[in-house]
Amino acid sequence: MWSVCARRTGAVLATGSTWLFCQEEEKSRSSSSGACPMHSAADAPARSECPMHSSSSSYRAPVKYDVYGRALDPRNQMPKEAAQGRAPGQQSELSTSRVPSNIPKAGDDATWTYPSPQMFWNALVRKGKADGAREEDMDTVVAVHNNMNELTWRRVLEWERLRDARDATKDFEPRLSRFTGRPDELSLKARLKVLLGHPPPFDRHDWIVDRGGSEVRYVIDYYSDDSKANQDATPRLDDRGGAVKSILLDVRPALDSP
Q1: Are 148 and 222 spatial neighbours (Cβ–Cβ below 8 Å)?
Q2: How many CB atoms sit inside 10 A of residue 127's CB?
Protein backbone atom coordinates (compact mmCIF):
# COMPACT_ATOMS: atom_id res chain seq x y z
CA MET A 1 0.00 0.00 0.00
CA TRP A 2 2.69 2.47 1.01
CA SER A 3 4.95 1.60 -1.90
CA VAL A 4 2.17 2.57 -4.32
CA CYS A 5 1.62 5.81 -2.46
CA ALA A 6 5.36 6.47 -2.38
CA ARG A 7 5.61 6.13 -6.14
CA ARG A 8 2.70 8.52 -6.53
CA THR A 9 4.35 10.89 -4.07
CA GLY A 10 7.59 10.90 -6.06
CA ALA A 11 5.63 11.55 -9.23
CA VAL A 12 3.71 14.42 -7.67
CA LEU A 13 6.83 15.99 -6.20
CA ALA A 14 8.37 16.06 -9.66
CA THR A 15 5.36 17.35 -11.57
CA GLY A 16 6.24 20.99 -11.98
CA SER A 17 3.88 22.76 -9.63
CA THR A 18 5.25 25.80 -7.87
CA TRP A 19 4.70 25.27 -4.13
CA LEU A 20 7.56 24.76 -1.77
CA PHE A 21 7.16 27.06 1.20
CA CYS A 22 4.57 29.70 2.01
CA GLN A 23 5.29 32.49 4.45
CA GLU A 24 3.33 32.59 7.64
CA GLU A 25 1.32 35.75 7.00
CA GLU A 26 0.82 35.23 3.23
CA LYS A 27 2.88 38.37 2.60
CA SER A 28 5.28 36.69 0.22
CA ARG A 29 6.64 33.30 -0.63
CA SER A 30 10.00 32.39 -2.00
CA SER A 31 9.42 29.60 -4.47
CA SER A 32 9.97 29.79 -8.18
CA SER A 33 7.94 29.14 -11.25
CA GLY A 34 9.95 25.96 -11.70
CA ALA A 35 9.22 22.50 -10.42
CA CYS A 36 8.03 20.80 -7.37
CA PRO A 37 5.04 21.46 -5.23
CA MET A 38 7.22 19.86 -2.67
CA HIS A 39 6.39 22.78 -4.94
CA SER A 40 14.70 26.74 -14.45
CA ALA A 41 21.45 25.87 -17.27
CA ALA A 42 23.44 24.15 -15.05
CA ASP A 43 25.13 25.95 -12.17
CA ALA A 44 24.46 29.51 -13.30
CA PRO A 45 25.08 32.39 -10.90
CA ALA A 46 22.33 33.02 -8.40
CA ARG A 47 21.37 36.48 -9.68
CA SER A 48 20.31 35.02 -13.01
CA GLU A 49 17.75 32.84 -11.25
CA CYS A 50 16.00 35.60 -9.34
CA PRO A 51 12.92 36.93 -11.15
CA MET A 52 13.82 40.41 -9.92
CA HIS A 53 16.99 40.51 -12.01
CA SER A 54 17.18 40.74 -15.78
CA SER A 55 19.61 42.29 -18.21
CA SER A 56 16.83 43.39 -20.55
CA SER A 57 15.74 46.48 -18.64
CA SER A 58 16.34 48.26 -15.36
CA TYR A 59 12.64 49.13 -14.96
CA ARG A 60 10.34 46.84 -13.03
CA ALA A 61 6.61 47.39 -12.67
CA PRO A 62 5.65 47.73 -9.00
CA VAL A 63 3.00 45.00 -9.30
CA LYS A 64 2.87 41.93 -11.50
CA TYR A 65 -0.21 39.79 -12.13
CA ASP A 66 -0.83 36.24 -13.24
CA VAL A 67 -3.26 35.18 -15.97
CA TYR A 68 -6.05 35.19 -13.39
CA GLY A 69 -5.46 38.83 -12.45
CA ARG A 70 -3.88 38.00 -9.10
CA ALA A 71 -0.99 40.10 -7.81
CA LEU A 72 2.28 38.19 -7.73
CA ASP A 73 4.95 38.29 -5.07
CA PRO A 74 8.03 39.77 -6.85
CA ARG A 75 10.39 37.37 -5.06
CA ASN A 76 8.76 34.23 -6.40
CA GLN A 77 6.18 35.19 -9.04
CA MET A 78 3.45 33.47 -6.98
CA PRO A 79 0.03 34.83 -5.92
CA LYS A 80 0.31 36.89 -2.74
CA GLU A 81 -2.85 35.37 -1.30
CA ALA A 82 -2.82 31.64 -0.70
CA ALA A 83 -5.56 29.65 -2.39
CA GLN A 84 -7.28 27.66 0.36
CA GLY A 85 -10.64 27.13 -1.34
CA ARG A 86 -11.67 23.90 -3.01
CA ALA A 87 -10.32 23.33 -6.50
CA PRO A 88 -12.69 22.81 -9.45
CA GLY A 89 -13.90 19.22 -9.49
CA GLN A 90 -12.46 18.44 -6.07
CA GLN A 91 -14.30 15.51 -4.48
CA SER A 92 -12.98 15.32 -0.92
CA GLU A 93 -12.32 17.73 1.90
CA LEU A 94 -8.63 18.53 2.29
CA SER A 95 -6.96 20.02 5.32
CA THR A 96 -6.13 23.73 5.25
CA SER A 97 -3.78 23.44 8.23
CA ARG A 98 -0.22 24.55 7.67
CA VAL A 99 2.93 23.49 9.49
CA PRO A 100 5.71 25.93 10.41
CA SER A 101 9.13 24.78 9.30
CA ASN A 102 12.40 24.93 11.22
CA ILE A 103 13.99 26.95 8.42
CA PRO A 104 14.59 30.61 9.30
CA LYS A 105 13.55 33.26 6.79
CA ALA A 106 15.98 35.90 5.60
CA GLY A 107 14.85 39.40 6.55
CA ASP A 108 12.44 38.12 9.18
CA ASP A 109 12.44 36.64 12.66
CA ALA A 110 9.99 33.93 11.64
CA THR A 111 10.47 30.63 9.88
CA TRP A 112 9.05 29.53 6.54
CA THR A 113 5.61 27.92 6.63
CA TYR A 114 4.69 24.90 4.53
CA PRO A 115 1.60 24.74 2.31
CA SER A 116 -1.49 22.91 3.47
CA PRO A 117 -2.75 19.81 1.64
CA GLN A 118 -5.45 22.01 0.11
CA MET A 119 -2.92 24.54 -1.15
CA PHE A 120 -0.80 21.74 -2.53
CA TRP A 121 -3.72 20.24 -4.42
CA ASN A 122 -4.77 23.65 -5.73
CA ALA A 123 -1.26 24.20 -7.08
CA LEU A 124 -1.38 20.88 -8.92
CA VAL A 125 -4.76 21.66 -10.44
CA ARG A 126 -3.78 25.20 -11.39
CA LYS A 127 -0.65 23.98 -13.17
CA GLY A 128 -2.51 21.13 -14.91
CA LYS A 129 -0.42 18.54 -13.03
CA ALA A 130 -3.14 16.73 -11.10
CA ASP A 131 -3.33 13.77 -13.51
CA GLY A 132 -2.06 10.70 -11.71
CA ALA A 133 -2.32 12.38 -8.30
CA ARG A 134 -5.07 11.58 -5.82
CA GLU A 135 -6.69 13.94 -3.35
CA GLU A 136 -6.50 11.34 -0.61
CA ASP A 137 -2.71 11.17 -0.96
CA MET A 138 -2.15 14.86 -0.23
CA ASP A 139 -1.54 14.44 3.50
CA THR A 140 1.24 11.94 2.74
CA VAL A 141 2.63 13.99 -0.14
CA VAL A 142 2.80 17.11 2.04
CA ALA A 143 4.43 15.16 4.88
CA VAL A 144 7.13 13.88 2.50
CA HIS A 145 7.55 17.32 0.96
CA ASN A 146 8.00 18.98 4.34
CA ASN A 147 10.40 16.37 5.64
CA MET A 148 12.55 16.55 2.48
CA ASN A 149 12.93 20.28 2.94
CA GLU A 150 13.84 19.88 6.61
CA LEU A 151 16.49 17.32 5.63
CA THR A 152 17.78 19.64 2.92
CA TRP A 153 18.16 22.47 5.41
CA ARG A 154 20.04 20.21 7.82
CA ARG A 155 22.49 19.36 5.04
CA VAL A 156 22.90 23.06 4.29
CA LEU A 157 23.70 23.73 7.96
CA GLU A 158 26.28 20.95 7.93
CA TRP A 159 28.08 22.73 5.10
CA GLU A 160 27.73 26.06 6.89
CA ARG A 161 29.24 24.65 10.07
CA LEU A 162 32.26 23.47 8.07
CA ARG A 163 32.71 27.02 6.87
CA ASP A 164 32.34 28.34 10.41
CA ALA A 165 35.10 26.05 11.60
CA ARG A 166 37.34 27.16 8.75
CA ASP A 167 36.70 30.90 8.88
CA ALA A 168 35.68 31.30 12.52
CA THR A 169 32.66 33.35 11.43
CA LYS A 170 30.03 32.32 13.95
CA ASP A 171 28.38 35.70 14.48
CA PHE A 172 25.45 35.04 12.13
CA GLU A 173 22.65 32.55 11.60
CA PRO A 174 22.25 31.25 8.04
CA ARG A 175 18.74 31.97 6.76
CA LEU A 176 16.94 30.86 3.62
CA SER A 177 16.32 33.82 1.34
CA ARG A 178 14.65 32.20 -1.68
CA PHE A 179 14.76 29.15 -3.89
CA THR A 180 14.41 28.16 -7.49
CA GLY A 181 13.01 24.97 -8.97
CA ARG A 182 15.01 23.81 -12.02
CA PRO A 183 13.70 20.30 -12.79
CA ASP A 184 14.60 20.40 -16.48
CA GLU A 185 18.18 21.60 -15.98
CA LEU A 186 20.70 19.05 -14.82
CA SER A 187 23.43 20.34 -12.58
CA LEU A 188 27.02 19.73 -13.67
CA LYS A 189 27.38 16.93 -11.12
CA ALA A 190 24.13 15.31 -12.23
CA ARG A 191 25.21 15.46 -15.89
CA LEU A 192 28.48 13.73 -15.03
CA LYS A 193 26.62 11.04 -13.08
CA VAL A 194 24.24 10.46 -15.99
CA LEU A 195 27.19 10.09 -18.36
CA LEU A 196 28.52 7.40 -16.03
CA GLY A 197 25.22 5.54 -16.18
CA HIS A 198 23.49 6.86 -13.06
CA PRO A 199 19.74 7.66 -13.35
CA PRO A 200 19.02 11.39 -13.51
CA PRO A 201 17.49 13.23 -10.54
CA PHE A 202 13.72 13.68 -10.62
CA ASP A 203 14.04 17.26 -9.42
CA ARG A 204 16.54 20.01 -8.73
CA HIS A 205 16.37 23.07 -6.51
CA ASP A 206 18.74 25.97 -6.05
CA TRP A 207 18.50 27.52 -2.59
CA ILE A 208 19.82 31.02 -1.90
CA VAL A 209 21.07 31.32 1.67
CA ASP A 210 21.69 34.62 3.47
CA ARG A 211 25.03 34.20 5.20
CA GLY A 212 25.34 37.21 7.45
CA GLY A 213 24.40 39.66 4.71
CA SER A 214 26.00 37.87 1.77
CA GLU A 215 24.11 35.43 -0.44
CA VAL A 216 25.38 31.97 -1.29
CA ARG A 217 23.78 29.37 -3.52
CA TYR A 218 23.25 25.69 -2.81
CA VAL A 219 22.36 23.08 -5.42
CA ILE A 220 20.10 20.20 -4.43
CA ASP A 221 19.51 17.16 -6.63
CA TYR A 222 16.67 14.82 -5.65
CA TYR A 223 16.98 11.18 -6.71
CA SER A 224 14.48 8.34 -6.39
CA ASP A 225 15.22 4.70 -5.69
CA ASP A 226 12.13 2.62 -6.46
CA SER A 227 13.78 -0.50 -5.04
CA LYS A 228 13.39 0.99 -1.55
CA ALA A 229 9.83 2.29 -1.96
CA ASN A 230 8.36 -0.65 -0.05
CA GLN A 231 10.46 0.39 2.97
CA ASP A 232 9.01 3.89 3.11
CA ALA A 233 6.78 5.21 5.87
CA THR A 234 5.04 8.54 6.33
CA PRO A 235 7.67 10.79 7.93
CA ARG A 236 7.35 13.16 10.83
CA LEU A 237 8.54 16.69 10.19
CA ASP A 238 11.66 16.14 12.26
CA ASP A 239 12.44 12.65 10.96
CA ARG A 240 16.14 12.56 10.13
CA GLY A 241 15.95 10.43 7.04
CA GLY A 242 14.85 7.07 8.37
CA ALA A 243 11.26 7.08 7.10
CA VAL A 244 11.54 7.87 3.40
CA LYS A 245 14.29 5.68 2.02
CA SER A 246 13.33 5.96 -1.65
CA ILE A 247 14.22 9.67 -1.99
CA LEU A 248 17.90 10.58 -1.87
CA LEU A 249 19.31 14.09 -1.48
CA ASP A 250 22.53 15.50 -2.87
CA VAL A 251 23.05 18.91 -1.26
CA ARG A 252 26.19 20.99 -1.81
CA PRO A 253 27.33 24.59 -2.31
CA ALA A 254 27.29 25.75 -5.91
CA LEU A 255 30.66 26.09 -7.61
CA ASP A 256 30.17 29.85 -7.84
CA SER A 257 29.51 30.25 -4.10
CA PRO A 258 32.22 31.33 -1.67
Answers
A1: yes
A2: 17
The closest of 113, 134, 132, 128 to 31, measured between CA atoms, is: 113
- Please give the torsion angle defined by the CA atoms of residues 20, 24, 30 and 33, in that order, rounded to the nearest 10 degrees: 50
- CB count within 10 Å of CB 258 equals 10
From CA 115, how far away is CA 229, in angstroms rounded?
Answer: 24
Q: Position 80: which residue type?
A: K
From 51, 11, 61, select the one nearest 31 (Cα to Cα). Answer: 51
Per-residue CA distances from 76 to 79, 174, 195, 223, 252 (Å)? 9, 20, 33, 24, 22
pTM: 0.72
| Contact assessment for residue 176 and residue 104, using Cβ atoms and an 8 Å cutoff | yes
Q: How many CA atoms lie within 13 A of 258 on its CB side?
A: 10
pLDDT digits (tens, 9 = 90+) for 98-135: 999 999 988 778 888 899 999 999 989 988 888 889 99
Q: Give the Cβ contact number of residue 22 at 10 Å.
A: 23
* CA–CA distance, 79 with 120 (Å, rounded to integer): 14
- Residue burial 36-65, b: 16+ Cβ < 10 Å; e: rest: bbbbeeebeebeebbbeeeeeeeeeeeeee
Cα–Cα dist 109/100, whole Å: 13
Task: Give the total residue count for the chain.
Answer: 258
Whole-number Å distance between alpha carbons of 113 and 104: 10
